[in-house]
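Think of the structure tokens as a kind of shorthand, similar to the way a musician reads notation: each symbol stands for something richer, in this case the local conformation of the backbone. In the example below we present two proteins back to back. Begin with the first one, reading the sequence and then the tokens, and try to describe in your own words what changes along the chain.
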Amino acid sequence: MTSELPGVLVVDDELRSQEALHRTLEEDFNVFTASSAAEAAEIMAREWIQIVLCDQRMPGVSGVQFLREVRDKWPDAVRIIISGYTESEDIIAGINEAGIYQYLLKPWQPEQLLLTLRGAAEIYRLQTENQRLSLDLKVTGPVMRQRVASKRQVIERKFALDTLLRAPDSPMNAVCELLCKVARLDVPVLLTGESGTGKELLARALHLASPRRSEPFVTENCGAVPDQLLESELFGYKRGAFTGAYEDRVGLFKQADGGSIFLDEIGETTPAFQVKLLRVLQEGEVRPIGAPRPLPVDLRVVAATNRDLEADVRAGRFREDLYYRIAAITIQVPPLRERPMDIGLIAQTFVDETLSAAGLAPQRLGHDVLSCLTAYRWPGNVRELRNEVLRMVALADDGELRAADLSPRVLRAAAVEQEPALELLSGLDGDLKTRLDALEARIVRESLVRHRWNKTHAARELGLSRVGLRNKLTRYGLDKD
């Protein structure tokens, strides 16, 4: 038995009852025993007692009377009464007055007793934690509020439409101008485009530019969870609504009340769920699962998809009435391959953020790295670009960011882009010798790009002498580079 266990005081004038309770509780609790109220009070004064388990029938003072005294002197202790009488008026009258947590009848069952005391120990822990948090809040409240306000200002500056990363001639300028126009009104906006193009970032910027900027911004990926779970997440539920619903849960629609909700991948929802979603948008109310009546909600809905919803409507996969509800304004977000002028700016920002978070010195991306990045098609868009930057920073030797540390697929794209003759590989035209020559030329060029045109390192990697490498460069016209 250690003092780390919750302290329980058993108050009972019958020694056999004391011993039985002690044997039942000693593995899970640090048990103290007392035969009278006076003895119990002495123990309470010197020991850390979290739970008081008291018999009702004792000489001199009843259990309820003693627990009233405990409530006044040691209000944090959780109080439990045991009685052999099912209709004790004293107990019934004293439960609220003495703040009694539980009323147990004799003969008690060990499993029930242990379950009750474990619950009491958890209540004591929660009370103590709540008191500590309340004290911390009183002490640190002003500082925390200032920090939260400062952090909010940083977020608003970072995600403001006029500061989103883009070049002066970027196609994103037209997107941001349109978002600025629609931000003033509660018009439903549908953002379309490939995955990884930054639709959630734009939705957040739209929220921060709207009159709802000081209210919550809530996000949910509709394609990541099945219908039943998605319904409970968005609508919430009442305790007992289904197996495992042990307490009420506030849904994301209600959490976003007054603000905005971003429904990503809305095209992945089923027609059955779309009916429920349509009612929320039409009626402005949401009914938690198991609730007797709906709750009003006032929010702005911003949806996003990488699917062609108009084609899905024609095919019957997406409800037409829901489509027109969410797509009052449809904005197509261009993929990264259509914004080559933005790639260097975004990549450099990722580099700065990564190095700063790691406490490393800032670095500028070299021309060789930027040429490789802009030559690649980026099917994964901005998300893939970020991963390439992380890879390059992680593999850098002596802190130097090199093109050689980019993924092979990015380097291959750079080699093809920089040497049009190597495009023969994509079509595989010509006889066997022509194809092999094209393949060999591409391999040689990739090696040179990786080693920043250091012929000694490239020759070593390819298993060639410098003279042999020079001959191949001349043969394939690579020496002109």
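Once you have a description of the first chain, move to the second and do the same.
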Amino acid sequence: MTSPLLPEWLRIVLAAVLCGVAVLHVGHVLAMRGQRRWWHAGHTVMALGMAAMYLLPRMRNEGLYEAGLVLFALFTVAVVIGALLIRRNEGVLNPLWIAAGVDMVAMTYMLLPMSGRFAPVTYLFVGYLGCQAVAWVTGLWGRVPVLRPVLAGAPDAPEAAAPAVALTAHSAPTVPPSLAVMAATMAYMLAAM
């Protein structure tokens, strides 16, 4: 990448940060089960894909970008199918899975050749990813009603029941900032290209 908005030193720093994000999510993949494991696996793959895009410019690695395009298109399909199957089991479409699907679409879009991108779509993704970064930093995902535990029984029964969905906004303090960083680096790359 030769853009003045992506000097080599910044590409290296952002790739290193994204590798750190991937390591964090790998730890969660190894420690968790069920939907959480798959959700963190998807973010691990996205972080590694972003790190590769920052380190390996398209001009010298066209084959890698073509393979990445196919890989992320397949991941997008898998996330959409998974979200629909989970919706069938839980009775509600989890907004975190919707966001993961849109994130995968954004990754797929980023791997398209420049001739296959359109400025309005690019800036739509930049805006979406900017909002994602803000939502993770400010804790907005934890405030989505379907992701919060609901009160069990009558108003005088303060015990909290389980949330309506199995995958909720993560409570570990490192996950929201890591996802904010990933969304911000994705937005930055799209805006700089």
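Compare your description with these statements about the second chain. The chain has a mean pLDDT of 88.
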